[in-house]
TrEMBL record:
One of its GO terms (molecular function) is heme binding. The keyword Plastid does not apply. It comes from the Bacteria. This is Cytochrome. InterPro entries: Cyt_P450, Cyt_P450_B, Cyt_P450_CS, Cyt_P450_sf. It comes from Amycolatopsis coloradensis. Involved in the coupling of aromatic side chains of the heptapeptide of vancomycin. CDD domains: CYP107-like.
Amino acid sequence: MESRCPVILDTTGKDVHAEGAHLREQGPIAQVELPQGIRAWTVVGHDLAMKLLTDPRVSKNPRQHWDAYINGEIRSDWPLASWTAMDNMTTTYGADHTRLRRPVVKAFTPRRVRAMQPYIEKTVTKLLDDLAAVPPGEVVDLKRMFCYRLPASIICDLFGIPEESRAAILRGGEMTTDSSITPEEAEANVRDWTAQFQQLLEAKRRHPGDDLTTDLIASAEEDGETGMTDNELIGTLFVALGAGSETVMNLVTHAVHKLLTHPDQRSMVEDGRASWDDVIEETLRAESPINMLPLRFAVEDIELEGVTIPKGDPILMGYAAIGRDPEVHGANAGEWDITRTDKDHLSFGYGTHFCFGAPLARLEAQVALPALFERFPGLSLALDAEELQPQGTFIMNGWKTLPVRLLAPAEVR
């Protein structure tokens, strides 16, 4: 396996599942090539992923454990530069990770998330009202008008992002997950989002609000020397807003698409033979919102599965392939089946870096999906499923658009 040539990842994400299957031919971990010829490893096996996600020999801090970054070989115009430029809980190791994660996790406890349900329901109703105003028969991009607007509105409201700043701030997260951007775009993106979040921090210090950004600033000031620096606050805001919008968008988009293309399973949900939780968890398993998550690093040489990952080598977690591991889910692992008894997945991560927003993401989907299909029972794709275009990146797993036609109850014959 070590003698095989690395797989050059398709930066356009033309078919992430086919690429994942190709990587699996090398075993549960495969050597890959990232943009600009950077060599790395991608984990595609479920059991191996669980081991590495809790292995202390694996770090997420490039400033400590990626020699190429430390030596200046990775420049600010590398297409994935924002994943290394961020200074937050997702790019730290050990005690620093605990320090930076603690104040954020407090805001996303299961109890606090459950208390948000009325607010989420109100937001969903508003978005459905907007969809209902579309002229009958007109084609609607449901991804943009509903699947994206829902999590984007909620996460921006939570962090107190002004309406006039939302588009620019969220655009930074979109570009970060685009593996096909140019070096110039990558460098400009890091520069721009840093400036935008610095302006937000300054505005919140002048005019504190009832929002999580204000809470994080207050926590940093109260903790003194152990609190977040401005760079860490900026990095934390960036990852929270990006993860809180992009991943939920893909989860809801995939769930809608699967129900529209699997009418038999949609009927099972509608007559109570299956639950909306079945839909959500099976979608997370078979269509992980994130395809490959950058970046982790080997703290020392790691020997596993007949392979040695050299110290300092980057590692990606191939969540889309991990969810479809036939060693765990059988020969039909690539099929979406809500009756599947084993829907175990790692799409929210595992171990100390488990996604702090998982309870909120699940709740948003639990509210949004039944409300959408109840309001528009005649919802249908506006084109053949084979015509849908992929999102266009190897980092995310999603569709570029989801064109649909809407029919309200009175219009369904």
